[in-house]
Amino acid sequence: MRRIGVVLTVVLAFVASAASAAPIFADPVGLVQYAYQPYASDDAAGVDHKGLYSPSLLALFEADEARTSEGEIGALDFDPFVNGQDYELTGLEVTEAITNGDQSLVAVSFYNFGTFHQLMFTLVHRAEGWKIDDIESVLPGFDWRLSELLAADPMLN
């Protein structure tokens, strides 16, 4: 009887961890729409998009975290999904994907506190489905590329 209890505990732990993992996306647009759902429901505080990132983008986040002193802010002092620290999104539009093999581009536009923003998501197709590989703000004055921000050496800036 004890053995059944142990096996049941292991199975339940596995199911719980699988349920909390990010879904697998067969469609790049579906992944981007999923990433914005918490912002539409005003429930984005503490949102963790890590399960949506490619291994290379995750490695950049981890390197930034490793070189950031405890209690300090890393390379990002804003949420790249809303191009700001706070958000009040309106007019969110996610375009159809432009796909070439295992890479896809998805444009997103929205107003945040009345200011227009346009982002370009680069996604890659992996064995675990589509993943966000980079995000770029493409409007003059708001232009940045997430991978470049995360890779920058703060000691040189």
Give an account of the 3D structure:
This protein is of the alpha+beta class. It has a single domain (25-156), classed as Nuclear Transport Factor 2, Chain: A. It is built from four helices and six strands, in the order H-H-H-E-E-E-E-E-E-H. The protein has helices at 2-20, 28-40, 55-67, 146-151; strands at residues 89-94, 98-100, 103-112, 115-126, 129-137, 144-145. Strands 1, 2, 3, 4, 5 and 6 form a six-stranded antiparallel beta sheet that branches. A hairpin with a 2-residue loop joins strand 3 and strand 4. The radius of gyration is 18 Å and the shape is globular. 18% of the residues are buried. The model is unreliable at 1-20 (pLDDT under 50).
List keywords for this structure.
157 residues, single chain, 6 strands, 4 helices, Nuclear Transport Factor 2, Chain: A, disordered N terminus, alpha+beta, six-stranded antiparallel sheet
Give a brief description.
The protein is an alpha+beta fold and 157 residues long. 32% of the residues lie in helices and 27% in strands.
Distance between the termini: 62 Å
Report Rg.
18 Å
Give the low-confidence spans: 1-20
Biggest β-sheet strands, sense, barrel:
6 strands, antiparallel
What is the level-2 CATH architecture name?
Roll
Number of domains: 1
Class by helix and strand content? alpha+beta
What count of helical segments does DSSP give?
4
What is the CATH class designation?
Alpha Beta
